[in-house]
């Protein structure tokens, strides 16, 4: 039977969250750089292969978008877990001594 109780290191979770945020920023920067370079290239590329590659490039961008969306969900999840763990920790810290 699964338990609703959980416990983890808040410090480790915060470090992980920081790395997820860095990853998110890196994804955005890489995607932006690719889009800029593609824009430069396609303005001077005039043949059928460009159109074929453009379809492939759109799939690449879609993959970046999917990764960004999934990562954003993970960021929110970890933020919520940290918040819950902090709440539990503060409640435990406020218990009277026996």
From TrEMBL:
<protein>
    <recommendedName>
        <fullName>WXG100 family type VII secretion target</fullName>
    </recommendedName>
</protein>
<feature type="coiled-coil region">
    <location>
        <begin position="10"/>
        <end position="44"/>
    </location>
</feature>
<keyword id="KW-0175">Coiled coil</keyword>
<dbReference type="InterPro" id="IPR029013">
    <property type="entry name" value="HP0062-like_sf"/>
</dbReference>
